[in-house]
Amino acid sequence: MGNGLRCVRLDDGFSCYVPENSSGSTDEIGFIHAEIFRDECYLRGGAVLPADAVVVDVGANVGLFSLFVKRRCPAARILALEPMPETFRALWANLAGVDGVRAVRQAVGAGAEDAVAFTYFPDLPGNSTRYPGTKKLARQHPTAGALLADAREVVLPVRRLSEVLTEAGLPERIDLLKIDVEGAEADVLAGIDDRDWPRVQQVVAEVQGHRGEAEAVLELLRGKGFSADAGATEDELDDLGTRLITARRPSCA
């Protein structure tokens, strides 16, 4: 395709675009595809998708969760947010022609900031993060550590999620807010105004548990009226201190 992208063919005839990298590794996208489509990882904690679901996908990566939602619920409306330029190009290519999905290149956090340094990992772009310290355990993994060696700084603006939601013009009700932003999950939640919290019916967040982030996110969500629990992720992620938090309003029970 050019433009720094290549097409990768995965299981069941599925293919998608990913950013070009020097290692040529497809391990990460294969793992993510299996997580989402085979294991339905983001629904494991009991989150449900109505037929006309409205989903906000924060940390959309190359768009696989958005594509999973559209396969499950063709009438769904999705706002997919991804800040990394190379990854966003792949996201845009993968979602081209998919009705009901709006892709926006944007980082979100607790407050508006003009220039924030992020770390982009070309060989493992799904691990790119504002907080590279969260990758300490991953760097000790024999395979992941080598792929994380190539790290580049990318400076990006950050906005609050409520501001982005206002501009997106989504329906009042948001059925699922999915967050997977490599250590900044609490920041994303802190960027939601009080007026927007009643709109959100369910939250699924993959959180770095070894820094106490999971406990902080659980406390925040419970304080907003959700029933929230932290479950295990895939074995490899669980070993890295990652937890999957699922929060639901009583009306979703």
Automatic annotation (TrEMBL):
The chain positions of domain Methyltransferase FkbM read 57-226
Any signal peptide, and if so, which residues?
none
UniProt-listed Gene3D superfamilies: Vaccinia Virus protein VP39
Top-level taxon in the UniProt lineage: Bacteria
Which InterPro entries does the entry link to? FkbM_mtfrase, SAM-dependent_MTase, SAM-dependent_MTases_sf
Q: Which NCBIfam families match?
A: fkbM_fam
The record ties this protein, via PANTHER family, to:
METHYLTRANSFERASE, FKBM FAMILY PROTEIN, SLL1173 PROTEIN
Tell me what this protein is called: Methyltransferase FkbM domain-containing protein
